[in-house]
Every structure is written in structure tokens, then in C-alpha cells.
Amino acid sequence: MTREQLTEKILDIKRERGWSWAHIAREIGGMSEILIVGALLGQGKLVKPLARKAAALFGLAETEERMLNETPYRGTPMPPTDPLIYRFYELVMVNGPALKAIIEEEFGDGIMSAIDFDMSLERLANPKGDRVNIIMSGKFLPYKYYGAADGTPDYGFKEE
Description:
Elements: H1 3-17, H2 21-28, H3 33-40, H4 48-58, H5 62-68, H6 83-107, E1 110-124, E2 131-142
Antiparallel strand pairs: 1-2
């Protein structure tokens, strides 16, 4: 069985049983719903105790449970063809330069981690149409200025 086939099996069981992602995440527990769903879709891994819970929930074989604990090949082909996923890319393409400028002005020369990262999603009621509220929080990682000498800082933190 491939990881893609396991994802399809999980989706089939989800459909057959009429489960929501929220229900599945509550049953497995232990981490963010976004990370659990991502792992079940093949874009992340579940630590062994959570892989065990997921396997029990979905009635998976031991080898399938182990597959949920393997580090996957992450990502999707570019450019994305799904309109919702594409909008995330569009958001970054359009707003990325401004976000980059503001982050660097506030924090210095570096990046926002997508590994040491938290994210949540909630629905906000709005009379003009409900809103999707996504909150992202990533650790600031300054660039290391290797070979720094003569008073040059070691890292790209904001200079005062």
C-alpha cells in the first residue's frame, strides 16, 4: 500500500461513517486539528501514540499504523490547481512583500519559521458572509552572519 492509497482509505472510512474532521481530531487528540488532518491527508506524521489511536479509530492494520508515523514527502505540485489552496498562494504573492518588509523592520534580518509554528482556524459570523479567521504564529529566526568579525553582530536581530 502507498501513502496515497492509505489517505484514500481513510477518506473512504470518514465518508462511510459520516465523521467530521473535528470529530476525528477530538477522538485522536494530542495536537492541533490542523496537524492531525494534515497527517491523515499524508502531509505530516502522527507520533506513535497518536498513530495508534488513529489506527484504532479507523480500524487500520499495523503496517498502516506505522505508515502514519513515517515522515512523509510534504507539499503539492506547483502551481496548485485547487482554487482554495491557490488563494493562499495568491495571498502570499500579493501581500508577501509587505509582510516581509514589516517583519524585517520589526524583528531584523531573518525569517518566520514554518516549523516552530502555531496555527488555528475559526469561523467568524458576519452578516455579509461568514469569515475564515486564520491565526499564524511563527518563531522569528534571524539569519546567522557566519564569519562575523570586527563588531559585526552574529545574527540579524533588529539593530537599535
